[in-house]
Amino acid sequence: MSVVPDAPRRGRLWLAAAGVAVLAIGIAVAITVNPADDRPTASAPASVPVSATAPASATVSATVSASATVPHTARPRSARDRIALPRPAGVWPGEHGLSGVNGFPVLNTASVNKFCAARGRPCTMAQTYTDRTDYESMTRGSGWVFEYFADFDGVLVVSQALVPDGGEALVDDCAAGDYDRHWRDFGALMVQHGRGDSIVRLGWEMNEPSMAWRGLDPAGYIACYRRAADAIRATNSQVVLDWTINAHNTPAGLCGGLSTDCYPGDGYADIVGIDNYDHHPWSPTKADFDRTAAAPEGLTWLFDFARAHGKLFSVGEWGVMPTGDAGKDNPEFVRWMHAWFAEHAPYLAYEAWFQRCDGKVSQSAILRPSDPSCLPNTGSSTVYRELFSR
Fold this sequence. Notes:
The protein is α/β, with parallel strands linked by helices. It has a single domain (2-44, 71-388), classed as Alpha-Beta Barrel (TIM Barrel), CATH 3.20.20.80. The chain is 27% helix and 15% strand. It contains 11 helices and 11 strands. Helix 6 (180-192) crosses helix 7, helix 8 packs parallel to helix 9 (299-308) and helix 10 packs parallel to helix 11 (378-388). The two termini are 28 Å apart.
């Protein structure tokens, strides 16, 4: 799924319900927020070089286990501290698992905390999205993203586009380094707001047809991703980069028909992740769930890819999809996902439910019994609260 905000007027909250377009393998959400006259600035020093290769210090160790060395005091906002904590297999979220949600109907702390109160356990991470109007609003104009979560005492995950909406033709320019200064500005902005040590899902779901940065040319996508990653790291050495695919299907015209053909390389991803919903195909039985997870582009298939490359794993978006091919609530999907998380906990960096409903298309929301625009998803709400409140 894809949330697309513009730049907001300072102090004005925005609703995440402007528009949704469903494709066979994903959902795109369009959101409008504020004009450019109120954007904060965070220009990077002109003298900061952009390296041609990823610095070794920028890669997060992916061999975390129950016996790993743990920081004496894990700062709650530090992605690096939190994912280095031990997570024993068989339990999720447990004492140290990063589990949370995106803000809905507003991408802010209050919406995240309301969801977490309803589930009966605080969220230790929150996911948000930058604007995709132009490079300016995507990068140095995204201060509002961090301001809306200034009071969130947990890890922040930011989904960041590689080119603006409608900017397919800009991928080659990005690959050539034409937008490096914007990416340096974005890294500096994260540091300025005290969120340098956060996770960025850079150019996520490149195998989904609605994304402007989709892998029409895998080499071009990879080159653009690498330029952005290098430039962000030039001004923010603490950033944790998450390379995430859309589950279940990669069209023949994207990434050569296989998502991992767009993998940017081990030096450019600290985490490998997936957005995994119960649709296309949905899972009526545990056997179906396991088969889909093991198939190419599936949950377990990509986890195995991540481990083969020494990377931690994430599930940045997941949920039921009663308006998809299932055509109904599927609480057992929640139960199977939780069991999968628990089994793979030692290498699971984080997972986030995707909370969304607009009365027409995306109805993945749970724990919202009084919202008339949302399908109730009563079964999923009950199972989720039961399992994730522990």
